[in-house]
Amino acid sequence: MNRRLALLLAAAPAWRALANNSGRTKTVKIAEFDSTGKLLGVNVVDRVEKADDEWKRELTPLAYHVTRKQGTEVAFTGKYDKNKADGIYRCRCCGTALFDSKTKFDSRTGWPSFWAPIAKENVHEETDRSHGMVRTEVQCARCSAHLGHVFPDGPRPTGLRYCMNSVSLDFVARGQ
Question: Could you list the residue range(s) of the whole structural domain that residue 136 is in?
Answer without folding.
Answer: 25-173
